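Chapter review: from sequence to fold.
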Amino acid sequence: MSNPQSGGGPAPDRDPRPAPGARSAVHSLLQERDFLRVWVAGGLGGTVRWLETLAVGVYTLAATGSAFTVALMLFARAAPTALFGAFAGAVAERVPRLVVLRAGLATMVLVAGGLAVLAHSGRLALWHVALGAFLNGTFFSLEFPARRTMVAEIAGLARVGTAMSLDSATNNATRMLGPLLGGFLFASLGLAGAYVLSASLYLGAFLALVGLRFRPAAPSAAGTAMLAIVREGVAYIRLNRLVAGTLVVTLLVNLFGFAYSSMVPVIGERRLALGPAEIGVLMSMEGLGALIGSIAVALGVRASWFTRVYSGGSALFLAMITGFSLCAVYPLAMVALALAGLGIAGFSTMQSTIVLSATEPRMRARVMGVLLVCIGAGPVGVLHVGLLAEWLGAAAAVRTIAIEGLVALGLTLWRWPELLRPPPRP
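The token string follows.
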């Protein structure tokens, strides 16, 4: 067993092979049917998440005219990660991960289909939309630790960095594709069209997992109490400085960074005078930059760079969000969000890579659950930016939270210098 105090790597994984080159690792992963199935399911689910974020935001702004209510909708989507995150990791250990994914996807097909029927019949109310957002967030809180742990275990420790890069590239592609689809569908078919596509994509993700044969690398914790699983994960993190620092940065970026997306529809309409389709294009630029960055990470980043790519990407993201808040011209706003996406690529790709590679196999799902709690800081950030927007305006609110994030990130890197050093070899 490794020494967590040193921030060292996990005990030997079931994959004893030496780390392959980046290109050969990509090729070998894309030849594995089980990896492809889980990968595709994640991509389809991610598309729904961003498609609905845009469509629901535009719908809510049109229905209420309130920037704070728009923020509340994103809060409803993000709140389950904070409420259920730690226990989601425990569920992923007690219940077979594949069962968690299939049950969640089947439920979301029904939810999205029901909302589509309500929207088409003209009976859709704002509380229906909020409930749908909350259920979507609940599914994500279960999907994240279950599916990402499956990705790591299918890939094996030698290819975990490449697997996370590929998965993040797909997720970032959905940040581009989802808003584009959401904007154009809302402009042409209304919210009903967006929900019909959501149900179809969830169904496709469910079908992608049919025939998957997955065996977890670590023994099941089915006989262990939920609270005991959570306590073990927290205790482990306290002793592993590298993992602890990574989780703190995750918390800060979600608290001060990602909340800006709730204000993009408001800034787009009120400051840049854009329609729904143009706002969708604007939001997609972040995904475009993130996709390019994730592909670059997958093909060219060495293990010794993981921590610095993570820290540098986080700083670039927050800096470019500050720049976006200052833009009064559509093309400059697009460039700022594309550069922010490059930062997101470094942050999101390395986030799970560092946590999974520096954690013992038996602790991975529960530590991923705690990671999800840190991601769950997002709802607090959404309320923060929403209240500031009512007081200062949307652009000034985004600028304020981004600068707060940059200051907090600097203090964190001073406290955890491990995040600026090459990580220990597993």
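Two observations follow directly from the output. Residues 1-19, 218-225 have pLDDT under 50 and may be disordered. The longest helix spans residues 160-208.
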